[in-house]
Specification:
Elements: E1 6-15, H1 29-53, E2 57-62, E3 67-73, H2 77-83, E4 89-90, E5 93-103, H3 106-125, H4 131-142, H5 146-151
Antiparallel strand pairs: 1-3, 1-5, 2-3, 4-5
Helix pairs in contact: 1-2, 3-4
Length: about 150
Amino acid sequence: MVRYKNRYITIQVSSKKEKFANKPLNLKPQAVHEAIQKKVLEMYGDYGIAAIKAGFSAKYCNAHTRIALIKIRHGPHMFLLKALPKINDVGGNHVNVKIMYIGATMKHCFIFIKNYQREKLQSMWKEMKNDNERKELEKALMTMDPAMKDLL
């Protein structure tokens, strides 16, 4: 049997418009997936799309922290790394995409995301007025897919 190596890329998708800078972004895994495929097709053509197609998926998106996790095979991940910063439209929103972390396992990416979300939560707590708002914000930020909770 052959073991396929994967790369997991953690990205941050931020809005270019300042009035939407602090509001949750309507971020869906399918929209991220389509935006990436569109940019790879634009930059590398059919060869790039064929290279990334096997084993490529957007795994996790959090609208509050604007973080997404992408899985891709090792090798063609270089196409993705060059295309990601050039993406400026995800699901009809004008955005900037920043690569935050590249890991060989999903567990390490989830640990990075958890730590990042905890830091983001602490910075947002300063703006909250009461404990109920803080608990709601913590619930929104720290929710992860069931598969993610098993790994942590």
